[in-house]
Write a structure and sequence with these properties.
Layout lengths: L3 H47 L2 H16 L13 H12 L15 E3 H12 L10 E3 L2 E6 L4 E3 L10 E10 L2 E9 L16 E12 L2 E9 L7 H9 L6 H9 L5 H7 L7
Helix pairs in contact: 2-3, 2-7, 3-4
Protein name: Ice-structuring protein
Keywords: Membrane, Transmembrane, Transmembrane helix
């Protein structure tokens, strides 16, 4: 029969054993919680790293005015239709028209210094235009040398297409931005602002890295193809003119601040 001191020791030993067991269980629970948190955090971090939604939206805004004019593909800026490139920049520069000078008919003078800035942002700091009167897409843009500005036609720009960036692929010092061309015209040529719009064709816009920034250098055919070939041909050949107020609503559904586009483009990781 155990003496009283021995009984106390056994009791204390059992308490210590239960305490160690409880502590071990708590540690196991904390380890499981920690592993779950690490795995969950890793999944969220991985999803964030591969989520390029903001970058796609930024490129959509950056290319909006050029895609609207459906430019002919080119392998270099030297081979491009300069009038279309300039036309796209002119419309991208127009913001608050009240800040610009107007003639007696209400036509606006757009200074070429603003175009130079927009050209440097999209085509690169070394790309320059020769400014003179030109025609593009049925409109005449008169260059007024003494004002160093273009006298813009009193009209609204009607977009034939709106860009939808499908994917962005990095290839060394270039980015291949695959752009879907959204047309507000159905396969039958009817216009509708409420239809389920899908791209009627695709083009790859090639951006080349210069001094840490990416600038448009080429437009080439894409390996992506529309779901149906007929809708593409009908949309391209359609001569239906949509109500301007509806086209404006479609345009306003996209971002409008070019500075936001530049700030949203992510920086490349330091290698």
């Amino acid at each position: 029969m155990a003496t009283q001191p021995e009984g106390k020791e056994l009791s204390a030993l059992r308490r210590r054993r239960r305490l160690r067991q409880l502590l071990g269980a708590v540690v196991c629970v904390l380890v499981v919680i920690g592993l779950f948190s690490v795995v969950s955090g890793g999944i969220q971090l991985g999803a964030a790293l591969f989520d390029d939604t903001e970058e796609k939206e930024a490129y959509e805004l950056r290319l909006r005015n050029l895609v609207a004019l459906d430019p002919t593909p080119f392998d270099s800026l030297d081979e491009a239709n300069k009038n279309t490139l300039l036309n796209a920049l002119i419309w991208s520069c127009i913001g608050d028209s009240s800040s610009y000078e107007h003639d007696e008919t209400g036509a606006m003078y757009l200074p070429t210094i603003d175009i130079d800035k927009a050209a440097a942002e999209l085509y690169g700091p070394d790309f320059k235009f020769t400014y003179e009167t030109f025609e593009d897409h049925g409109m005449t843009f008169e260059y007024v040398a003494e004002k160093q500005a273009y006298l813009l036609p009193v009209t609204s720009a009607v977009n034939d297409y709106f860009p939808k960036v499908e994917r962005i692929k990095r290839e060394g010092d270039t980015k291949r931005v695959t752009v879907g061309y959204l047309s507000p015209f159905s396969a039958g040529g009817e216009f509708s602002s409420n239809m389920d719009i899908t791209p009627t064709k695709y083009q790859d816009y090639i951006f080349t890295k210069i001094d840490g920034e990416y600038y448009l250098s080429a437009i080439v055919a894409s390996e992506m193809k529309p779901e149906t070939a007929s809708s593409s041909s009908v949309a391209a050949e359609s001569v239906v003119t949509a109500p301007q107020e509806v086209m404006d609503d479609l345009a306003n559904s996209l971002p409008t601040d070019s500075s936001v586009a530049q700030s949203q483009l992510p920086e490349d990781p330091v290698e």
